[in-house]
Amino acid sequence: MGTIQIENMSYKYDQMVDNLFDSLNLQIDESWKLGLIGRNGRGKTTLMKILLGKLPYQGKIVSNLNFYYYPQDVTDKNRPTVEIVKELTDLEDYDLWKIEVELDKLQAKTDILEQDFSTLSPGEQTKVLLAILFIDDYGFQLIDEPTNHLDIEGRKVVADYLKSKQGFIVISHDKTFLNEVIDHVISINRQNIDIYKGNFDVWEQEKSRQDASQLEEKEQLQKDISRLHETAVKRENWSNQSEKQKNKTGLQKVNLDKGFISHKAAKMMKKAKTVSKRVDSEIEKKQGLLKNIEIEEPIKLNYQAVSHPKNLVVVDNLELVHDELKTPVTSFKVPINQVVSLVGRNGIGKTTIFKQILGIKQPFKQNGELKIANNIKISYLAQEDELTGEIRQLAEERKIDPEMIFSNLRKLGFERNLFDQPVESMSQGQRRKVALAISLSQEANLYLWDEPLNFLDVITRQQIVDAIKKQHPTMLLIDHDKDLIDEISDQKIILEN
Ligand SMILES: Nc1ncnc2c1ncn2[C@@H]1O[C@H](COP(=O)(O)OP(=O)(O)OP(=O)(O)O)[C@@H](O)[C@H]1O
Ligand SMILES: [Mg+2]
């Protein structure tokens, strides 16, 4: 069995002050199905790029495996998919059956190879790129967030596919998916990096057990500390007093030997100092450990409830048509203080309906009815937000107080030193958090959130769920995370042809 040995590896990006990885040591077996987890911006993608040899790290990485990365860069998408496959794999025509075998396992039609890549659904694109990764039997795959653009069915298929493979690392924030797929976990914590044997649930249980015992230890420690401090103070007082007494000549009792008192006082003093030193180092050690506990601060939407009309959106037999594309005929209402979810496979037209509600110009002809309440403020979180530039600038353009966005970002676990960085140099999840923080900060009567959870870590996900459950905003939601939909929706609208 081969291994990947990471020895004393350190890395930081140029503009960083501290190392992202600091003398990291890890040993990974080539047969493991590894889930790489950790909050946004911890360095998951960076670790993969380091393994690929794309970043100039310090230290040593020993392995004789061929690493492959998903998602690959596809330069020109307006070409038949087969061209892209050939470019990314060096496969000859007579070898193309290899990719067809993988596509078949992924339940994708092989004739998509003839289609232009740009015309494939996001799910199909994902499957093609994954199939490419697995044609080398001796490869070790580094798969960076494959589920983001997959619908529920697609996630299941890809989970089953990966489960049948051996030896890869996958990054994902989808617990259900990870539980299906992985048998080991690498967790990038606040203070260290851990490896566990087991799936996500096993890791989560272990982590909360550790957190609980650390908190308990902390309480015990704090008691110990104050007791030790008290004793130390008492000792110190005693030795000080003895010194004083020793110097008060005349009043000294005969049986008190000056030398003895002095010696004893010095000993006490020394002991007090040692104890306090030990206490200090113990406190430091414990506090270091406690920093591994992830903090989950509540977030809040800047939601302004309106009292009427009863429904902010009314959709009646709506159908949007353009060439062969047609959304299913749909009817629903979005009542005040309710979360309504649109559920349906990739490419069925959910985002198209969103854009029509927002009045964004589209080439679709509208049949049926669509009514939006007058003068309401809508906060829209787009599926793909191509934000660029500095946060302050983005806030000003949208007439939002930047401090409000910063405060929301802090709650979402953002480091302060990122505030002045251009959004394009942030991690995927950090970019998504900027978009989310903008939406949270905007004053709104209605939220249109298109796949809010994409790229976000599990803690942020929980923060979102808690806020929505608490505030009951009026919201129209699209997401492929089944647990989220079940947890927060008051109504589910199923779209299907
Ligand atoms: N090209 C870059 N230049 C400067 N800093 C970067 C660059 N790419 C990433 N970073 C920073 O390095 C840190 C790690 O980023 P990385 O993309 O590896 O995180 P991640 O764990 O994959 O996060 P996510 O879950 O959001 O994808 C982040 O703080 C990010 O802002
Ligand atoms: Mg990443």
**Which structural class do the helices and strands define?**
alpha/beta
- The fold-level CATH name of the largest domain is Rossmann fold
What's the architecture of the largest domain in CATH terms? Answer: 3-Layer(aba) Sandwich
Mean pLDDT: 89
Largest β sheet strand count, sense and barrel closure: 6 strands, mixed
How much of the polypeptide forms β-strand, as a percent range?
A: 15-25%
User: What is the number of helical segments per DSSP (H or I, 4+ residues)?
Assistant: 14
Strand order of the largest sheet: 5-6-7-3-8-9
Strand elements, count: 18
Unreliable spans are: 250-254
Ligands in the model, by name, code or SMILES, are: adenosine-5'-triphosphate, magnesium ion
Walk me through this protein's architecture:
The protein has 497 residues and is α/β, with parallel strands linked by helices. It folds into three domains: 3-201, Rossmann fold (3-Layer(aba) Sandwich), CATH 3.40.50.300; 207-290; 311-494, Rossmann fold (3-Layer(aba) Sandwich), CATH 3.40.50.300. 40% of the residues lie in helices and 21% in strands. The chain contains 14 helices and 18 strands. It has helices spanning 44-51, 81-89, 97-105, 122-133, 152-163, 175-181, 200-247, 258-290, 350-358, 391-397, 402-411, 428-441, 458-471, 482-488; strands spanning 3-11, 21-29, 33-38, 58-62, 66-70, 139-144, 168-171, 184-188, 193-197, 311-322, 325-326, 330-335, 339-343, 365-372, 378-381, 446-450, 475-478, 491-494. Strands 5-6-7-3-8-9 form a six-stranded mixed β-sheet, with helices on both faces. A five-stranded parallel β-sheet has the order 15-16-17-13-18, sandwiched between helices. The longest helix is centred in the middle third of the chain and has 48 residues, at 200-247. It is globular, with a radius of gyration of 30 Å. The two termini are 49 Å apart. The protein binds adenosine-5'-triphosphate and magnesium ion.
